[in-house]
């Protein structure tokens, strides 16, 4: 169950310029969290910025009771958060519906673009724990070699990683979706993806044509984070036919690839 | 110490409730708040039929506030009465259902359906939505239609009726007097203030709906002023809201004349805000030697 905690910051790093990674101590939260879920973090003490900011859970260490988040500085809230090197963080979580893993999903491809790699690392931790690192392909995209995230730690977990950069400074030169279309030739059983909207839209289109199931993590602006305010509407196709809005904070942020209306 | 209040026939064990639309149907906040500590729970605006709501983005943050344009997304009165109320009723906390519609008949239909449903202690009429039949003019900005809605609802329900006033009018006191005359049992204020935010990089409005309603600490002085003026003019009990984050903010409304207060946007920032406000009001009363909350209501007018 989700909890509201004042969590002590136990680590801070800047893996690439403009991206921060914060570790905090929250044993209950670490125990309850699953990959793809997020925390809702207060970014300041006053009323500006006012609302909490949703940030995916990047990694957990259940033994140590710690949780990591990784985020890009894009505005006031994330700028404040990036300055917090010690002290307490006001955190709610774990929130939302995350990725589903298990037997039938083992022969899978995990695709991340930019900061979208953040929640995928937690997923990879789980997949490694389930003992299927060797069956899983990981594709990571970034603007250039200097902005690649989670590559080394993912390799350390035992996964094979393929890289794509927009400028060709590392791996394949071009969008990461070009690597995905190669991987789709090998008939993978399942795809997990997180990244910018254009990438996710392209991924969902490719999965539909290939007839491969998958899950994507989407973002919407949030206020409450608990399903009460209806701010975070995501348009989805209903199984029964027709379209409807669902709440990204409780029905998502992970949705089945075929559900999302882009 | 007595903190119980009577809001136009709705008996609350303390003056703190939740602002409609910010607390869902209450159960969403159960992991964080002991709902039984609340004086009442006001739930999301309910219409005759389910509504899908507006296209996203539906919110945007503003300095010390936020704009929302949810578009009255709700499951419709049938599901509220049949599925949600039975679960809420078990809590034993008075539930006030906020009702909305496009026509006078819509309001009456929802009110009639909720009459006698266990757990429903009162209705709050949201007259700040556009009147489709009258060309999108808000019920809340035309005293004649506001009076019509109030009368229509009163005539089909035995429940206490709170009329929620919009601040987007030139004569708030006139509106309050008109709906009081029409039979309202209490008044609530304020609903959100209309606003627009433009994304300068993309050179277009941020919200899918273009306009949205401003709430949060930014609106508090406007809301306290509304309570202050209406308290002087109308004798009905007032439910005050708008930017209440702490017990001291709530006390401002009570001192200005509010019998009870509703906490809205604050829930998003601090999910325990409601309960902390209940406790903070008790502490204030103890420290300042007040034994009954009613001694504080409107006290600033007598200073
Ligand atoms: C479920 C979820 C998980 C997320 N996980 C991560 C993560 O792991 N790492 C990370 O870096 N970011 C993540 N985000 C995005 C993050 O929440 C926003 O970048 C952050 O709220 C921006 O706050 P700010 O005050 O810095 O920027 P603001 O000043 O509020 O806005 C700056 C820019 O960010 C955009 N923005 C604002 N809020 C959101 C939002 N909720 N979603 C998307 N864009 C937004 C605005 O359109 C604006 O262009 C996640 C979002 C969601 C919904
Ligand atoms: C996300 C959101 C949804 C709301 N939905 C409703 C609603 O359905 N009916 C209504 O009468 N008021 C609605 N309101 C207005 C609030 O009930 C309240 O009047 C207003 O937000 C001012 O209080 P606050 O500043 O404490 O939030 C909504 C407000 C917000 C922020
Ligand atoms: S953010 Fe409030 S319902 Fe999702």
Automatic annotation (TrEMBL), chain A:
Entry binding sites for FAD: 53-56, 77-78
Summary of the function given for this chain in its UniProt record: Responsible for channeling the electrons from the oxidation of dihydroorotate from the FMN redox center in the PyrD type B subunit to the ultimate electron acceptor NAD(+).
The protein's annotated pathway: Pyrimidine metabolism; UMP biosynthesis via de novo pathway; orotate from (S)-dihydroorotate (NAD(+) route): step 1/1
Name this polypeptide is given: Dihydroorotate dehydrogenase B (NAD(+)), electron transfer subunit
Family: Belongs to the PyrK family.
GO molecular-function terms, A-Z: 2 iron, 2 sulfur cluster binding; electron transfer activity; flavin adenine dinucleotide binding; metal ion binding; oxidoreductase activity
Recorded name of the encoding gene: pyrK
Iron-sulfur in keyword set: yes
TrEMBL record, chain B:
Pathway annotation from the record: Pyrimidine metabolism; UMP biosynthesis via de novo pathway; orotate from (S)-dihydroorotate (NAD(+) route): step 1/1
Gene3D superfamilies: Aldolase class I
MF-aspect GO terms: dihydroorotate dehydrogenase (NAD+) activity
GO BP field: 'de novo' pyrimidine nucleobase biosynthetic process; 'de novo' UMP biosynthetic process
InterPro entries found in the cross-reference section: Aldolase_TIM, DHO_dehydrogenase, DHOD_1B, Dihydroorotate_DH_1, Dihydroorotate_DH_1_2, Dihydroorotate_DH_cat, Dihydroorotate_DH_CS, Dihydroorotate_DH_I
Required co-factors: FMN
Alphabetical UniProt keywords: Cytoplasm, Flavoprotein, FMN, NAD, Oxidoreductase, Pyrimidine biosynthesis
UniProt subcellular location: Cytoplasm
Dihydroorotate dehydrogenase catalytic domain ranges (all copies): 4-285
SUPFAM superfamilies, alphabetized: FMN-linked oxidoreductases
EC number(s) on file: 1.3.-.-
Function of the protein: Catalyzes the conversion of dihydroorotate to orotate with NAD(+) as electron acceptor.
NCBIfam families linked to this entry: PRK07259.1, pyrD_sub1_fam
Protein name: Dihydroorotate dehydrogenase
């Amino acid at each position: 169950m989700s909890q509201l905690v004042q969590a002590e910051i136990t680590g801070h790093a800047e893996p690439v310029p403009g991206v921060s990674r914060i570790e905090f101590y929250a044993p209950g939260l670490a125990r309850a969290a699953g990959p793809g879920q997020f925390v809702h973090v207060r970014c300041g003490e006053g009323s500006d910025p006012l609302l909490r900011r949703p940030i995916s859970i990047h990694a957990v260490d259940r033994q140590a009771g710690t949780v990591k988040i990784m985020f890009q500085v894009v505005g006031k809230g994330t700028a404040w958060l990036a300055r917090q090197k010690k002290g307490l963080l006001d955190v709610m979580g774990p929130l939302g519906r995350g990725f589903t893993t298990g037997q039938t999903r083992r022969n899978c491809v995990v695709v991340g673009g930019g900061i979208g790699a953040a929640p995928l690392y937690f997923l990879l931790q789980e997949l490694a724990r389930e003992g299927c690192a060797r069956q899983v392909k990981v594709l990571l995209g970034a603007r250039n070699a200097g902005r690649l995230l989670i590559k080394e730690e993912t390799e350390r977990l035992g996964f094979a990683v393929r890289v794509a950069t927009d400028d060709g400074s590392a791996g394949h030169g071009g969008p990461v979706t070009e690597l995905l279309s190669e991987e789709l030739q090998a008939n993978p059983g399942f795809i997990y993806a997180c990244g910018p909207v254009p990438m996710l839209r392209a991924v969902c289109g490719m999965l539909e044509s290939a007839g491969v199931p998958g899950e994507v993590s989407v973002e919407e602006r949030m206020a409450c984070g608990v399903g009460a305010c209806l701010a975070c509407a995501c348009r989805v196709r209903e199984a029964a036919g027709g379209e409807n809005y669902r709440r990204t904070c409780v029905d998502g942020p992970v949705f089945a690839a075929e559900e999302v209306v882009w | 110490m007595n903190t119980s209040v009577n809001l136009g026939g709705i008996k609350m064990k303390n003056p703190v409730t939740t602002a409609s639309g910010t607390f869902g149907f209450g159960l969403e906040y159960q992991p964080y708040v002991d709902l039984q500590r609340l004086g009442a729970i006001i739930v999301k605006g309910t219409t005759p039929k389910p509504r899908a709501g507006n296209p996203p983005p539906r919110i945007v943050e503003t300095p010390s506030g936020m704009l929302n344009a949810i578009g009255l997304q709700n499951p419709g009165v049938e599901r509220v009465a049949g599925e949600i109320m039975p679960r809420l009723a078990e809590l034993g906390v008075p539930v006030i259902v906020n009702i909305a519609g496009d026509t006078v008949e819509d309001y009456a239909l929802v009110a009639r359906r909720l009459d006698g449903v266990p757990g429903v202690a009162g209705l709050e009429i949201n007259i700040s939505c556009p009147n489709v039949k009258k060309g999108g003019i808000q019920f809340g900005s035309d005293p004649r239609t506001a009076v019509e809605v109030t009368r229509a609802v009163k005539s089909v329900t035995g429940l206490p009726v709170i009329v929620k006033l919009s601040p987007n009018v030139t004569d708030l006191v006139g509106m309050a007097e008109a709906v009081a005359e029409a039979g309202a049992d209490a008044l609530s204020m304020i609903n959100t203030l209309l606003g627009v935010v433009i994304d300068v990089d993309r050179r277009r409005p941020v919200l899918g709906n273009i306009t949205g309603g401003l709430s949060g600490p930014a609106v508090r002085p406007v809301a306290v002023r509304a309570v202050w003026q209406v308290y002087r003019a109308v004798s009905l009990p007032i439910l005050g809201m708008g930017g209440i984050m702490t017990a001291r903010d709530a006390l401002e409304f009570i001192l200005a004349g509010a019998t009870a207060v509703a906490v809205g946007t604050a829930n998003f920032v601090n999910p325990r805000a409601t309960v902390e406000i209940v406790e903070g009001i008790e502490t204030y009363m103890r420290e300042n030697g007040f034994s009954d909350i009613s001694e504080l209501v409107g006290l600033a007018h007598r200073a």
